[in-house]
Amino acid sequence: MTTPASTASPRLEMQSISKRFGATVALDGVSLQVSPGEVLALVGENGAGKSTLMKILSGAHQPDAGRMRIDGNPFSPAHPLDARRAGVAMIYQELSLAPHLTVEENILLGMEPSSLGWIRGSEVRAKAAEALQYFAHAGIRPDQKVGRLTVAAQQLVEIARALAVGCRILVLDEPTSSLTRPDAQRLFELIQQLKQKGLAIVYISHFLEEVKEVSDRITVLRDGQSVGEGLTRELSVNRIIALMVGREVKDLYPRSARVPGDTLLEIDRLAGLEKPVSASLILRRGEVLGIAGLMGAGRTELLRCIFGLDAVRRGHIKVGAYLGPASPVRRWRQGLGMLSEDRKQEGLALSLSVADNVTLSKLEGFGPAGLVFPRQQAAATQGWIDRLGIRCRGPEQSVGALSGGNQQKVALARLLQHDVDVLLLDEPTRGIDVAAKAAIYQIIDELASGARGQKPKAILVVSSYLPELMGICDRLCVMCRGQLRASHQVQEVSEHSLMLEATGQEG
Amino acid sequence: MDIRSIKSFLVKSLVSDSVKLVLALLAVFFLFVVAVGAQKGLAARAENQKVLAELNQAGAPAAKPAGDNRLQDPWREGWDGAMRFLSGRNLETIARQTTIVGLAALGMTLVIIAGGIDLSVGSAVALATIVIAWFLGRMPSPSIAAILAVATCALFGLLSGLAITRLRVVPFIVTLGMMLLVRGAAKGLSHEQKIDAPETWLNGLLASLLPEQRWMLVPVGVWVLIAMAMVTALVLRYTKLGRHAFALGSNEQTARLCGVAVDRVKLGIYTLCGAFAGLAGVMQFSRLTVGDPTVANGLELDVIAAVVIGGGSLSGGEGSVLGSLAGALIMTVIRSGCSQMGMPNWVQEIITGIIIIAAVALDRRRHRRAAE
């Protein structure tokens, strides 16, 4: 792997970029630079600010402070098209192609050579062929519909499109997360070719072994700051992880005495249609089990399979005394509830009231003969508003008007109102402020330890935030590429060892 | 060219969607030829039996009453019925009846490919007939009247486009409003009455051909449809507008990212759809010979059905001119066949409904299989 001369003037410079969203500081004075013919890897935990930084580069967000230069010229894109014209191309995890158009139509979309509106067909083919010359081995035919190609091939088409618009800076955001190993290898070879062509490449990945393989330099982000930078060959994987994690767990996590009881949830070699590949676990009453892992590892899919939202390919699920997969309706009846990671789209009906949202899963018992009396709904909801400290004008207020933290409490109140025994919590504290997080940790602890004279519950938590999992769970397991590994007692693991396991460095 | 490449070419063209649709059209047509024939034959046989029974009751001799002129030959009747359905005259009628829906479907194809919908085409057709009749009553210049009608409808299409792009209201709602608005405008302009118009060559556009015009095969209006269809197909295939329409319907965000002038494309497409509706209105006027503000009520649904039967996807990105025309023809053939078989109107409607659902269901299944 060649290292570019340090004297080469940088292709891209980002200097002291800062960005806040409301009260949250997403980026706090981040700087980085990439030279032509260099691959810079950008690493950091989820939420460290990588995507915000790249959105600023691509013109989707504007920075509050800081400046950018491309080849020495000031660069401040007002919108993505601006950045694209300046030669910045982004390849996201979700590809942005028009599936109904052919490969060559996609490559030249928006810049078709034409006279008086009529497309010059031969020129289109020539230009597309030129853009595709690096991809000859991929077996992509220019007249194929993009929707019929494999994900790997689509990704190549997208890179070809970036080259066709004359891109100088190529950003690859988790490009291998949906690729097979041989496809990923081919992508790495392509990256080497593009380097030789003089492109500056920013490579974002969770998989540190890939980062070691493809990059020349590494910049580590944590909590919106760049905390480390160096040549790839001089940084060990352990050093990178230490830079990524580097923070102590505060005493944010209450932990009462918990007594594990009877087994409430048991799954054995469970496989979904794509993910999970294989997952086995046992969850007892009075226990909090955490699942760590990277985005896309299949943790959400595991919960969805258990809850009956996704299809189960094989394996066993046993909820209490009930064996086998079941629909969400039956899962609720069996005493199992799920909190969705996507509060806005899936978890809550934002235009409905707090009371409607809390009682949505079980509208029985609010009046005689199956009738639902709003007053009784409101009365039941008021109890949860008081107990969880939901800040709202009352049960009638619509949930969309509440803050993220209060919305999350409403979603949690639904599980409590239904009085389920097993709670599946997917990213229960995503996007909410610290105070609300603390309140939710408190609730989880009370549920697991059986405070207030109630029976303890069994809780399964998925989170991408390791300190949180270490703080609230009794046991932890790691999911990596669809495989759920064996669980560890929380005392036996460190963030470091979990990160190693999650990035596939161990085992 | 060796055998294998010929075979692969044949297989490919058989798999091609438009060819499949045309084959489906022929199949539907053939089905109706057979059905009409069978129905006529069976009816003749039933009639014969009734006659025989009557004769028996009347105490006529048991010998074969071959001489009775009320008896028909069922085979002959059936054959004649089938041939009548296949006759040039009937084919011409089918073509004429398809023209109005077909012209409007051209514009609708563009809109649906771009992921939109236009519910105002029925109203636009009515408005066009009124504009023509109103103008002819003042100035006897049919070509200016026709151009004015098309321009008026295009203007309303442009208005729809402006509302969709500037006010950011979804096309369904905008064109639903436009449907009422344009219908109201037509009624207002005509004082809610039919407007009589002097006879001009416009009336001949869709009239049945006179014997000395036989060389034209079909009336001028049908030729207009064919020419317009070819132009639209070329625009879809070979112009930026067409390419961008597909891109828009396929993935609007991507189109925007790639620098496609999304709003301008939408404006163009809705304007064109309005213009095609206006042209359909000219044909409607030719058939009515008067301006009628209540005509073409619900036509937009026929038009959408034609596009959808022809492989257009309401979520955008798919559709073709040939498909939409085949869709329009399939509906006309069903109508014509049913009425020749003496079926009541409601049967035709049920059959059309089933065809629409079945066409889309088949299409979805094909898609799923292609995805696997």
What is the gist of this entry?
The complex is a heterodimer of chains A (507) and B (372). Chain A has helices at residues 50-57, 80-85, 103-107, 121-132, 151-164, 181-196, 208-214, 237-245, 299-307, 328-334, 343-347, 354-359, 374-388, 404-418, 434-449, 466-472, 495-502; strands at residues 12-21, 24-34, 39-43, 65-70, 73-74, 88-91, 114-115, 118-119, 169-173, 200-204, 217-222, 225-231, 263-272, 279-284, 287-293, 312-319, 322-323, 336-339, 422-426, 458-462, 475-480, 483-484, 488-489. By secondary structure, chain A is of the alpha/beta class.
Q: Topology of this protein?
A:
The complex is a heterodimer of chains A (507) and B (372).
Chain A: E1 12-21, E2 24-34, E3 39-43, H1 50-57, E4 65-70, E5 73-74, H2 80-85, E6 88-91, H3 103-107, E7 114-115, E8 118-119, H4 121-132, H5 151-164, E9 169-173, H6 181-196, E10 200-204, H7 208-214, E11 217-222, E12 225-231, H8 237-245, E13 263-272, E14 279-284, E15 287-293, H9 299-307, E16 312-319, E17 322-323, H10 328-334, E18 336-339, H11 343-347, H12 354-359, H13 374-388, H14 404-418, E19 422-426, H15 434-449, E20 458-462, H16 466-472, E21 475-480, E22 483-484, E23 488-489, H17 495-502
Parallel strand pairs in A: 3-10, 3-11, 6-9, 9-10, 15-20, 15-21, 18-19, 19-20
Antiparallel strand pairs in A: 1-2, 1-4, 4-5, 7-8, 11-12, 13-14, 13-16, 16-17, 21-22, 21-23
Chain B: H1 3-15, H2 17-57, H3 74-86, H4 88-113, H5 121-136, H6 142-166, H7 171-189, E1 195-196, H8 220-238, H9 240-250, H10 252-257, H11 262-288, E2 290-291, H12 299-309, H13 321-340, H14 345-371
Antiparallel strand pairs in B: 1-2
Helix pairs in contact in B: 2-3, 2-13, 4-8, 4-9, 4-11, 4-12, 4-13, 5-6, 5-7, 5-11, 6-7, 6-11, 8-9, 9-11, 12-13, 12-14, 13-14
